[in-house]
Amino acid sequence: MKKRSIIIGLLLLALIAIWVILHTFSSSSVAARPVSLVITGPDGQRFTGSYVADGVTNSVSAVVPATISLQAREVSYEFKREGGDGEFRVALFVGDLCRTSTTSHEQPGVRGELRYAAGRESYWAAGF
User: Fold this and answer.
1) Which of 35, 40, 36, 34 lies closest to 102, judged by CA?
2) Mean pLDDT (whole number) for 41-63
3) How far is CA 57 from each of CA 17, 74, 87, rounded to the nearest angstrom?
4) Strand 74-81 and strand 109-117: pairing?
5) Whole-model pTM?
6) Is 118 helix (H, G, I), strand (E, B) or coil?
7) Exposed end of the chain (fewer CB within 10 Å): N or C?
8) What's the pLDDT tens digit per position in 54-64?
């Protein structure tokens, strides 16, 4: 009985190790891609926020229109207009292709995310 428990425990550890190795390999084997965040709204509209590119956080305080260009596999962002009215929009481009473009509508900000893994891509955006 004790021998059987040890064998099952070792098998579980082996499976976990294989999963970790495969997960790490598949994430790191995807090359970073050119990503642009294009922020628009009424000319001169101030906004603040941040974006995280491959685990590195960057704070932003700027005026629209603005473009943030980077190379990454994973990008998340959250930008909020500082006062004012009008459409506040964040468009996410990969290369020259727009993946998502979202306005804040009646809400003050926009957040979203882009992720790459081996053979797949996912992205979303929403006002908040």
Assistant:
1) 40
2) 96
3) 29, 12, 26
4) antiparallel
5) 0.75
6) coil
7) N
8) 999 999 999 99
